[in-house]
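Progress note, project year one: complex with beta-D-galactopyranose.
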Amino acid sequence: MPGYPALPEGIAYGGDYYPEQWPREVQEEDVRLMREAGVTLVSLGIFAWVLLEPAEGRYEFGWLDEIIDRLHAAGIAVNLGTPTATPPPWFSRKYPDSVPVTREGVRIGLGSRESACSSHPAFLAATSALVTRLADRYGDHPAVVMWHVHNEYGAPLGECYCAASVTAWRDWLRLAHESLDTLNDAWGTTFWGQRYGDWDEIDAPRWSHTVVNPAQRLDYARFSNDAHLSHYRLQRDLLRGTGKPVTTNFAGTVNCKSMDLWRWAPELDVIANDHYLDGERRDNHIHLAMSADLSRSLAGGGPWMIMEHSTGAVSWQPRGIAKRPGEMRRNSLAHVARGSDAVMFFQWRASRFGAEKFHSAMVPHAGTDSQIWRDVVALGSDLRELAEVRGSRVAAEVAIVWDWESYWALELEWRPSGDLTFLDRISAFYETLWRTHVTTDFVHPSADISGYRVVVAPSSYLLTEASAKNLQRYVESGGNLVVSYFSGIVNEHDTVHPGAHPGVLRDLLGLSIEEFHPLREHETVTLSGGATARVWSERVRLTGARSVQTFTTGPDAGHPAATVNELGAGSAWYLATAPLDGLRDLLTPILDRAAVARPQDLPDTLEYVRRDRHVFLINHADTPATVPGLTGTDVLTRTPFNGEVPAGAVTVVRLS
Ligand code: GAL
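Model obtained:
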C-alpha cells in the first residue's frame, strides 16, 4: 500500500468530522475533546461542495484552511474528502439532466445526496475542476495524510438510466463486445426476438412489464460499476500527484451489492470499509466479522481501515437499536483483530439538524457525561496499547468464494426458487466457520487459491469455464473444495453451460443433476446424518463421486444429498441442499482431513482471531470464557494472560 506510512502512528482513531455544522466555540471544544479521547485522524469535507464552491468557479477555502490548521496544531491528522457525493444546488439547476434517473424512469428529487450521474459530462468536468483545486491547495499540507474520494460509491446510487448513461453504456458495449453479432450471441437475443441491427437500438434495461433480458441486465450492472469506477479514477489520478494515499469508503463490503469490489480494490491505495450492525440481529457481530474478512481479502491480506462504524444506534433502520454495554468496544476491536489499522466512526459529534440527527456519534447529544463518551475515551486508550499490532497480517487457511457477478446474476428474476439469495447461502457457511473459530478469507473464483487448505463455494451460480478450471486445478493438486447446490450453472452471460447441470463442475464433482426440486416456503427435508434442510433438493446422479449422506425425506428421498469426489491429490465435496443445522457436522470431517488449525474446547460465542503474534479473544456471551493452553501477555492490561476472558470483554494476548 503506497503511502500508507504517512498515516499517524499506531491504530488510527477518529471519525467523520463536520465542523461546518458548528460555531467556532464548538469547533474549539471539539479539538480539545478529540485530544482527550486520543483521536488521531478525522475525515473532513465529505459533503461540503457547496461550501467550498458556493457558485460555479467561485471558491471559498478559508473556513477549511482554518479548521485543518487548528487540527494540525493539535496533532490531529486529516483524511481529506472530495465532496462529489453532494453536487451543489446551483449545479443541479444548471444541469438538470445530470440528475439520476431510476430504472422505473423517475428522475430523483433533490435535497438529498448522490444527485449527479457519474457518466454526465458536466459532472465529470465540475469534479475535475474542484478536485484539481483541492489537490493544489492541500496536497502539501502536513496535516493532510490521505484522500477520501466521494462517499460510498454505489449506495444509494447504483444504476442510473439517464440519457448520458445510455450514451456511455453504448460506448461501453462497443468496447466489451467486438461486434453487434457477438453481443447478440452473448445476450441470446434470438430469444423473444430481440436481435439488434444497430448499436443505437440498444437501450438501458429499464423497468418493463415483464422480465428484461438477464444478460442485458448483467452487462448493465457491469457498466454501472465501471461508470462509478471511472469517476473515482478521474479523481484518484488528480490526487495521486500529491504523493498521498487515495481511498474511497466502501458502502459495506458485504452489503454493497452494486459494486464489484474486486475491480475496485487494485485502484485504491488503502482499502476502507464502512460497516453498520443490523440492530435487530443478536448475532450481528458475525456479520461484522464477515464484512471485515472481506475487507481484508480485498486488501490482499494486508491492513485496511474501518472508515465508518457507529458508537450506538443508526438512524436509517426501522428501529435505532442502541449498542449493549461493551458492544462498541467489541465491534471496534473485532475490526482491528481482522486486520484494520484504524477505528473510525460516523461521526464525531451528533448533528442537531438534517437527516441523521438521531444517529449516534462519538460525542452524543447527551455530551461528555454519558456512557458513550466514557467508552470513546476508554477505546482511545485501548488503541494506544494496541499500537504494536499495526501492519501485522491475519493468516487464513480457509477461503470462501465470493463473486459479485454471481451475486448479481443469481438474484435476477425467474430463478428456480426465490429463496436462492446469495448472502444467506454464503452466511450459512461463514457463520459455521466463525463458530468453529476458523478465520476465513474471501476469494474470487479465478484467484490463486493454492495456499488454502479448504475452499468453500456456497453460491457460484455464475462460474466461467476458466474459473471452473481454476477450481479443478486446485483440487487436483491437493486442495479440498466444498461446493453447494445451484453452482456452476451459467457462464458470464447467464447462458446455461451445455449439458446437464452443474455444467462446468460435472467432472470436478463427479456428478450431474437430473432435476431441481426446490422446496416450498416452509417445507423441510431430512438427511441421513440427522440434519434438517430447507430451500432445495435435487436429483443427483453419481458419475464418480460417492454419497456421504442421502436425503431421507422429500422429493429425492434415497438419493445423494452430500457427496465427495476424490480427484488427483484432493477432494471435491458437494452439498445438494441447505441444512438448517448440521452444517458444522458436514464441515468438520473436511476441516479435519485438511488439517485446518483451530483451537478446540472454546465456546462458540467466543471470537478467536490470530493477527500475527497477537490473539484477539472477544467474548460475546454474558458469561466468562475459559481459553485453555494460551500463554502470553494481555496487551491491554499489560499482565500475564490468566486463561479467562470475562463476560462481554475483549482480551488481546501477545503470544510468548
Ligand atoms: C454511511 C454514510 C454516512 C452516514 C452513515 C450513517 O452509509 O457513508 O455518510 O450516512 O452511513 O450510518
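The first strand starts at residue 12 and ends at 17.
The longest helix spans residues 214-240.
No further modelling is planned for this target in the current period.
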